[in-house]
């Protein structure tokens, strides 16, 4: 089982326990474990194998929030692929419960009411009950909630929102590549498709394998995929292509190609469709044609020919590498994250492709939580994890007091935490230059009626203030925009956290005038966040690109709630690359001194 599989199962257990009104601490334990495991790069299977070696000193219980009981359940999942507890819980609820939970705003407790009071067991049943006005009469719902549920049902039904998160797909891709590389017949293997372009969600996984070109070798490669432990079903198998069903029901398509065509096939199956159409059009203007086999001269472009090739095909001039394919039409290689059919061909032709930001450029992480609120690791543990990852500075940004469900910090508790950070920084600097500097931060909430949940005389003492909107997300477009701009104009607010509030596959963005928000950020020098949490990736690539164009600097932060969450920075990097961002567009690629200089006046560091 992959980390994604286990995180999904633990999340499902948490939902069912909450549905059954089980102990809140038990629910939280499974939910926190799901969050932690889902954000881990290191596989649980490899940790478990290492623990078998008595000299390894590594075990499942070393993971944040994983005690002996959860470790035992992980062991069961790794050994058998099933969890008896989940089987038992699922038998006691209607099969449609999880589909209903996909409706934004409907958690396990509300779904329990709908099931018990109205007998609803499907999205169709929920829709009918809303149309009949039955839902609004339930305690805790009302007319507005009923209308919101009815409006959100299409979101829950949409196949678009059942795609895998990029991070989950990436976990499967890495395991697949490692497995396929153990096949002796594989000379070269790469993944393509929307995963390679960094789409925030992925519908299927495309693999390309180079082998010697014989039918027997191709069959051996495909058989190796069929034998992968993650394969649940072989959907089809031909001479050079096979499709299987893998973890989380995702389809995996593998194609076997020859060396001379590998680059062309990689480019073709990476896409996007619009990018490939424009590239083929450019080739046709030059008397060439491009397909998955290579770049060819058109022997007679004026004659009708194969509709895909656009004419009779002459000699092959490129195909071994992607660089050769682009070079054949007079372009430099284009990073896959930019291949969405925008202006990337024009930028390439003019020599103006951006030098995209990389994970190695990041020096600091400026949004994270500890056990002081809803994190699972202490201040010291988050600090050590950041040092291990080579960061130069971090900001501890636990929630302000409005977020009561996360035990948000009031003024007294916040000042105590900041005093603890001062002592930690002094300790880190005892022997000279510290390996890392911890900034005194806070994530304040934008209140529904206006203002922030902590006063200015407290915020002015902070090194870093994230302002976020967690409540009142159903307010009008004008009101939500007004709240965010008010926070932007506060001199102590450094950055707006997850500015549109979306949760991929779970919740749509709230209705906000993002252009007005970007304009206000540009006017005041306030930064905007690309939240690297794989459920958020907010700002999206289009809004981030618009922010760059307006002169707004961005921050890529993990919003980590566990030490493993720090590894999600790579998800934010992929999103930034899709927006065409360079290191100079990202504030936390700068040294600490330059970072302080870039901030607007208002914080303690100024």
- The top-level CATH class of the largest domain is Alpha Beta
Q: What average pLDDT do the residues reach?
A: 92
Helix content: 40-55%
**What structural class should be given to the helix and strand makeup?**
alpha/beta
Strand content: 5-15%
- Measure the end-to-end span: 50 Å
CATH evolutionary superfamily of the largest domain: Metal-dependent hydrolases
How many structural units, i.e. domains?
A: 4
Question: What is the tally of helical segments?
Answer: 24
Write down the CATH topology of the largest domain.
TIM Barrel
Shape: globular
Known CATH architecture of the largest domain: Alpha-Beta Barrel
Please give the largest β-sheet: 7 strands, parallel
What's the arrangement of strands in the largest beta sheet? 11-12-13-14-15-16-17
Computed over alpha carbons, the radius of gyration is 26 Å
Count of β-strands: 17
Q: Unreliable runs, pLDDT <50, ≥5 residues?
A: 303-310
Structure description:
This protein has 606 residues and is an alpha/beta fold. It folds into four domains: 3-161, DNA polymerase, domain 1; 164-257, Beta Polymerase, domain 2, CATH 3.30.460; 263-349, Beta Polymerase, domain 3; 359-598, Metal-dependent hydrolases (TIM Barrel), CATH 3.20.20. It is built from 24 helices and 17 strands. It has a seven-stranded parallel beta sheet with strand order 11-12-13-14-15-16-17. Strands 2-4-7-6-5 form a five-stranded mixed beta sheet, sandwiched between helices. A three-stranded antiparallel beta sheet has the order 8-9-10. A hairpin with a 2-residue loop joins strand 8 (288-291) and strand 9 (294-300). Helix 1 (3-19) crosses helix 5 (84-91) and helix 20 packs parallel to helix 21 (514-524). The longest helix is centred in the last third of the chain and has 18 residues, at 411-428. The protein is globular and about 75 Å long. It starts with a helix and ends in an 8-residue tail after the last helix.
């Amino acid at each position: 089982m992959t980390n994604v599989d286990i995180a999904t199962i633990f999340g499902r257990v948490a939902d069912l326990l909450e549905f059954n009104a089980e102990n809140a601490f038990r629910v939280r334990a499974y939910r926190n474990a799901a969050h932690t495991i889902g954000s881990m790069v290191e596989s649980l299977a490899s940790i478990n194998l290492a623990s078998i070696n008595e000299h390894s000193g590594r075990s499942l219980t070393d993971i944040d929030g994983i005690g002996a009981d959860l470790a035992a359940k992980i062991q069961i999942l790794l050994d058998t692929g099933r969890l008896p507890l989940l089987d038992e819980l699922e038998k006691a609820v209607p099969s449609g419960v999880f589909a209903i939970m996909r409706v934004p705003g409907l958690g396990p407790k509300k779904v329990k009411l709908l099931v018990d009071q109205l007998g609803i067991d499907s999205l169709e049943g929920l829709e009918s009950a809303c149309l009949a006005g039955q839902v609004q009469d339930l305690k805790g719902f009302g007319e507005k909630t009923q209308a919101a549920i009815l409006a959100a049902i299409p979101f829950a039904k949409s196949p678009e929102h059942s795609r895998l998160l990029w991070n989950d797909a990436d976990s499967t891709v890495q395991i697949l590549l490692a497995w396929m590389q153990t096949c002796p017949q594989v000379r070269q293997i790469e993944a393509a498709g929307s995963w390679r372009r960094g789409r925030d969600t992925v519908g299927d996984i495309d693999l390309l394998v180079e082998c010697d070109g014989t039918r027997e070798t191709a069959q051996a490669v495909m058989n190796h995929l069929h034998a992968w432990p993650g394969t649940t079903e072989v959907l089809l198998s031909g001479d050079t292509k096979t499709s299987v069903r893998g973890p989380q029901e995702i389809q995996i398509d593998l194609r076997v190609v020859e060396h001379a065509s590998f680059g062309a096939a990689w480019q073709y199956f990476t896409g996007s469709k619009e990018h490939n159409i424009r590239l083929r059009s450019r080739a046709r203007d030059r008397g060439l044609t491009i397909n998955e086999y290579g770049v060819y001269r058109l022997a007679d472009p004026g004659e009708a020919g194969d509709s895909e090739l656009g004419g009779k095909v002459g000699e092959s001039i490129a195909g071994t590498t992607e660089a050769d394919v682009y070079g054949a039409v007079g372009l430099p290689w284009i990073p896959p994250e930019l291949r969405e059919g925008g202006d990337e061909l024009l930028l390439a032709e003019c020599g103006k492709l951006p030098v995209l930001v990389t994970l190695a450029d990041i020096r600091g992480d400026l949004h994270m939580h500890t056990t002081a609120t809803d994190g699972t690791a202490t201040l010291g543990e988050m600090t050590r994890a950041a040092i291990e990852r080579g960061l130069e500075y971090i900001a501890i940004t636990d929630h302000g007091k409005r977020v009561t469900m996360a035990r948000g910090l009031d003024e007294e508790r916040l000042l105590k935490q900041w005093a603890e950070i001062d002592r930690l920084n002094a300790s880190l600097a005892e022997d000279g230059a510290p390996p890392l500097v911890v900034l005194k931060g806070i994530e304040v909430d934008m209140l529904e009626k206006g203002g922030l949940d902590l006063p200015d005389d407290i915020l002015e003492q902070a090194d870093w203030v994230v302002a976020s909107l967690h409540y009142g997300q159903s307010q009008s477009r004008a009101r939500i925009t007004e709240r965010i701009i008010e926070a932007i104009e506060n001199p102590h607010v450094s950055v707006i956290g997850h500015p549109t509030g979306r949760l991929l596959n779970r919740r749509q963005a709230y209705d906000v005038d993002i252009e007005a928000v970007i304009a206000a950020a540009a006017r005041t020098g306030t930064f905007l966040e690309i939240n690297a949490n794989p459920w958020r990736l907010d700002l999206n690539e289009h809004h981030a690109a618009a922010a760059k164009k307006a002169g707004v600097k961005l921050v890529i932060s993990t919003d980590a709630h566990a030490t493993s969450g720090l590894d999600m920075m790579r998800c934010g990097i992929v999103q930034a690359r899709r927006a065409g961002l360079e290191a100079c567009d990202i504030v936390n690629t700068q040294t600490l001194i330059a970072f302080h200089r870039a901030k607007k006046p208002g914080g303690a560091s100024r």
